[in-house]
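Q: For a teaching session next week I want to show students how multiple molecules come together into a single three-dimensional assembly. I've collected the sequence lines for a complex. Could you give me the predicted structure tokens for the whole thing so I can convert them for display?
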Amino acid sequence: MDIIALTALLAASIAAGTAILFAAAGELLTERSGILNLGVEGMMLVGAVLGFIVTVNTGNHWLGVIGALVGGGIMAALHAVVTISLRANQVVSGLALTIFGTGLSGFLGKNYEGAPMLYQFKDLNIPVLQDIPVLGPIFFQHDIMVFLAMILAAGMWYVLYRTSWGITIRSVGENPQAADAAGINVARVRYFCTISGGMLAGLGGAYISLVYAPTWQQNMTAGRGWIAVALVIFALWNPTRAILGAYLFGGVEALTFRLQTMGIHISSFFLVMFPYIVTILVLVLVTIRRRQDAGAPEALGLSYDREER
Amino acid sequence: MPKFRLIRREENSTLVGLMTPILSIIMAFVLGWLVLDLAGFNPALVYRKMFSGSLGTYYAVSETIVKAIPLMLAGLAVSLAFKMKLWNIGAEGQIYMGAFAASGVAVAVGDGSPFLLIPLTMLAGFIAGAAWGFIPGMLRAYGQVNETIITLMLNYVAIYWVDYLVFGPWKDPKSMGFPLAPILPSGAQLPVLGDSRVHLGLIFALIIAVIIYILIQHTRWGYEVRVLGESQAAARYAGINVAKNIMLVMLISGGIAGIAGMIEVSGITHRLQQDLSPGYGYTAIIVAWLARLNPFAIILVAFLFGALIVGGYAIQIVGVSFAITQVFQGIVLFFLLAGELFIKYRIILIKEEAG
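A: Of course. Below is the structure for the complete assembly, covering every listed component.
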């Protein structure tokens, strides 16, 4: 593979990783506050379908983005009510959200199945930087959403580790009893993080239907929501590692696609299987190398009951 | 604004426990009505079609049972894992692996006595499904690897594996180019009831429900599983081998889902094919939860969800997407979860205090 092909492959990895990055960043924020939301796949699908429908009907892809944010946020709010206020099992509620979102997106998108997305985000070529050989085409010739995802994940790291907000969020995820005693409204923080996380998942979905594979198809996220959940573990709940991980998974996807077009004779079914197998291997390696609790918020997945302090 | 306080009940309320599943289903239909109405459909017409299509005629009821059989088996499969709070959401993949192995063995052995072929294919289906459940079980037991994500990822692997076979090496030359594996020898096909498609798998599901009930409620092993579901720390303290039980439960859970795959092949499609399951493995999660993991309730609830699937096909005639059935399933599960609160807690209205 020559340098031009390699450059193109790496650039494609970043594009492919962007949807996963949005979703993973959202899930990371949610989990940092102690709430596990396995509904990422469902929230992404709802974001994808709403982003698509709004854009097609208004002709404005920014309105589509807003639609996706709202859709993902409302979905996550459902999870928040059930798990935070009603203290229900977070795993099962997340599964319910995925099933519900898969159904809802299929139902809403029925008349849009296979329609092309005509309103595209233009590539935002960063002046000067884009002219750097090799690095320019890899990093600086993308649409605005790609940059947004990078900035968002980096900003999330800053907020979590360098601001008092971040301390508040992390303390709620680590030890809600202590946070409560310190006067923090645990439920409010968890609602905020869960809903914001859902909005980002919706945005990740919209990136797929508006930019990456500009059309609507039932179940078009194809498990990326689950890969995002795995990525949070891979990143040890650190947003900057999530950026790296997202592009790595994006790379697997881009490579799969490349190999197919290069006519390499591996059955295409094995190629499409590849990202899922890589996810399994990565998850196993990461968890076995470090104990799983290293990095995981202490109170992740547990509902908080003031009365039982 | 009035304030509420939640007080934990001394004992879980059985009345609320019985009412929540029923109310959840009613609420799904109420909200479903709204969704359909907002989307511009005639909800009354859609519901009528759904009902008549799934329960209205002899044929409809028999088709509902046909769809309920794999749901029963897959529901029983996941309920066993859920008892131990192991989130096996890989029944879908385990179904596909079971179907793959059953079909492979049946075609390889060729025709013979059903008394030999049916147990043989069932064993093959069980082993393949069990292997697919054992992988995440072993990883969880020895590496603390999250079984939810692994089982889910393995679903995709299994589905693409079956796709590969039916489009590639197993494609039947007589299938006119369609992605279908060869037809099973008639000795490996399950006998059916009269002129319907209801097959012997129904009896298998009922037997497995009884076996699971006895295992869980009346054996020492079942007791261990129940203790483990309550608290791993307590189980360890009581000298229960946690790792061994995690693997065993995932193995059996996967194996039963594998049998669900086997009966779909030997009872319905009679060959391995693409899209063998319209998401039975996922619907089974809701079936098990709605039945509160009770094996006999699973049989009953599976019938209801079989009706939902068959009704879902029927309403496509009036232009409603089959996906609406998943919307229903999601709503039911949400309300069930919300209901858990009222089973465990009493809600007390308190007067607002000054200051």
